[in-house]
Amino acid sequence: MKITKDEVLHVANLARLTLSDKELEVMTGQLDTILSYVNKLEELDTGTVEPTTHVLSITNAFREDRVTDSLSREESLANAPLHNGESFKVPKII
Amino acid sequence: MKPFELTIAQAMDDMAAGELSAVELTESCLSRIDEIDEKLQAFITVDGDAALSRAAEADGERRDGRAGALCGIPFSIKDLLSTKGVRTTCGSKILENYIPPYDATVVANIRKEGGVILGKVAMDEFAMGSTSETCAFGVVQNPNRKGYVAGGSSGGSAASVASFECPASLGSDTGGSIRQPASLCGIVGMKPTYGRVSRFGLTAFASSLDQVGPLARSVTDCAALLKVISGYDRRDSTSVNRDVPDFSLSLKKGLAGVRVGVPEEYFKQGLDAEVERVVRNGLEVLKGGGAELVAISLPHTEYCVASYYLISSSEASSNLARYDGVVYGYRDDRAESLIEMYKETRSKGFGDEVKRRILIGTYALSSGYYDAYYKKASQVRTLILDDFKKAFEKCDILVSPVIPTPAWKMGENDNDPLAMYLSDILTISANLAGIPGMSVPGGVTREGLPVGIQIQGDHFGEEKLIRAAYHLEQELNLGPLSLDI
Question: Could you tell me the residue range of the domain that residue B185 belongs to?
């Protein structure tokens, strides 16, 4: 096994997802199959190979620090599930 | 010919000659949608009234001599590109009611040139899938065969164009999501070079791989649309500041002296015999046009699926962290604590495939596994990129199949995600390497299912792709597909 149910539950918690018992069963099996497959990469010796995170070598895309148009408060709040006209509202944190 | 059957170039000619108005063309497309879309299910949202009023404006612009490059041309837009004031769902329940307050840059460019947006089209949820079956709002059919997949993730874009609901569409391609549905539906689709087109307003799936591109019924239309959407955008710092050529000038340049690489790894076991026949025929046609065929090896091809699914899922797990029920989108409001609200919102809002990829990505990035998975995959990405660099020393373009098979029946890979991932093997290397790729119709199987031919090129080599694609289109002269809606 590449991954256990406990590990899937741990990762789900990190990703802020909950899984039912049945979902956990199915998902663990599928993730195990996928992770076993991607282990194929171990066949390659990549000891001295630099990783690629971006294909084009653009570095530090600077721009002038100028104020430009931005969304109004009304537009920013328009899609919020809950707000008070000034802020986004969420359940109690503390 | 009915107006909805016209290509962009034909409609532009007719409108310039005063034989057709933008309003008539838009009405024709809207009634086509009305007639077939209940069965086809390409559209998630149709914005008919706005389309008709924009079309009336476009007619005015033409009368005043201010016609843009796409004046009065109707489009469908994949439902992950932001459209101001028009619902943009990403095919997900979590964004079911999301209305963007701004346009994606590519959408704004189309509007500026007079384009008429008919509505938003179906896709796999957050572009994660190869069939559009993970869409939360119905599954789009392949217009060529009832009960068959249209491909994905830009399945709605490809189906709406192939079925004559509109002449062209914008999709996005993270691992083949433009080229593969274009191939399965029998139309032209292109993933431009990474950085050629702005991603501002494109909902992020895997930011280092995503690219917006055109789908159309002719290479000429594809070239025209590519020009309109290309170019540097200060709102996307990964867009590249370089001149945008007039791609239309490349169409008729011919193939004299063009070296066409044939990557042997793309013709290996698992390739459907009918697909191979169509692609080999395409290679002969290119040779007949003066191109030289060169055998090429891309030795790390067999590792691209593993590398891709680790990198794309890792980036997705980070990008999709924003869907937490706070600023926009669905919220489960029964939860009493903040963490519980996040968890319930995400668990109810996301579908299974999205959850699967978030879990893979979170795992690959988590403490203790980062080096073994994400870093390793990024190193293999370098090897794949190097394969292409070496290949383009020996050839100008690479020609191959797009996907190893023609379209298949809906539901076939429901319980086997890995089998589905493996079907992407011929398209995802282009995303890992950031190179442009295109699918152009090559013919049909004995059963009448469309098969595309893939053309890939070096960074910013779109003009060469267009030259080869146009030659194939003209010489193959396939004629209209027989639709089955």
Answer: 3-256
